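Batch job 17 of 40 flagged for manual review because the log was empty.
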Amino acid sequence: MEWFTDPGLGLSRLVIQRGLAVIYLVAFVSTATQFRALIGERGILPVPAFVRRVRFREAPSLFHWHYSDRFFAGCAWTGALLSALLAAGAGDAVPLWAATAAWAVLWLLYLSIVNVGQTWYGFGWETLLLEAGFLGILLGNAETGPPVLVLWLLRWLVFRVEFGAGLIKWRGDRCWRELTCLTYHHETQPMPGPLSWFFHHLPRRLHRAEAAANHVAQLVVPFALFLPQPVATVAALLIITTQLWLVLSGNFSWLNWLTMVLALSAVDSTLLGAPPASTDTAPGWFVGLTVAVTALTVILSYWPVRNMLSRDQRMNASFNPVHLVNTYGAFGSVTRVRHEIVLEGTDATTVDPTTTWHAYEFRGKPGATGRLPRQFAPYHLRLDWMMWFAALSPAAARGWLLPLVDRLLENDPDTVRLLRVNPFTTAPPTRVRALLYRYRFTTPRERRETGDWWHRTLVRELLPPHPGRHTP
């Protein structure tokens, strides 16, 4: 059955499987360490309340049948353990059916989490991991050669990620067509990294070159993934290079890392000096399942293709409740001004102009002006990311922002554990308020004079001092 396998993609399959398992591990650990405050029984948006109002067929999940924080944690840590085993090569040490089942369990567990995660799991890289993870079920193991159909489906996935992102930019903000968006983006992106300040201060001509290179990488190069070798390998390596640039310039969870892993599906490792893989024949059930999934992907591709061709293109959307064959894209518009919400508390019994307020500091999002942004990706700080969206549209965030404030007023242990600094370690605050600031990177001169990475200006009070239930 020579048509089913390609010996030139053996090393690529190996790295894809290991990389996918590592990203699954990061995703499950990220969930296990944050879920209690966000979607737990006493969380900001509790899962039990969600599954009571949303039907199973709308959001398939194990947690429709049973939910407790202990059960959820067990699922998350089980996913982390299984991911670690697969990353270590356990999939090649067991029969093909067992390896296939292990990847299917990972996908089912993470699908169950995402489908009850609500706002906290509404990111494009969540659906990207689910779609890639579903295809990963059929990558096989050492018993069979690399399945050509699955590797081509992974190329099709990479194409949609890149081309969809390129289209949404070209059709969206005019600054992308004028090559000026990156004059703002490094400063206003959701979560800057430790090098973002330096990227922001690159000469304007380099920002224009960045934008132009982005258009080439996302609108032209993806087509070459489907051309004969070695062209497809060169295209994949170009995509990986541009994704590494994005890794250096910001924090986008595992989006860039997973895209790089998936791009390896087009790399003929024999061109890089690796020996060809085995072409052992796959069993009939595996071949039949692979052909069926390929046919399903072709059918489901109608919706993302229609979306890409539409003038009203949507970003990061799923067209079915199991997140198969999705549409992707980001930053169709770029904000010119960065706003940040700063939460502050006080232990004073009365509030007046002399009241002393203490700021809560988040792990990733900008706060103290002298703190250099940290690198967290591929780990996903869900609360920090949503605080960026809340600053863009405070009214849309009230459904979870006010419950967050309530939990800070209670010094809820799970909630304050998500923060870098809780100024109230012995007793909860009497009141919490939210202030809206305009942030910008300091200039090189300001940086030398003050030591600060950020300069901020108060815009307005977003939420007046909010009393807790314990306040007299």
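Reviewer: the log was empty due to a logging misconfiguration, but the result itself is present. The chain has 19 helices and six strands. Unflagging and moving on to job 18.
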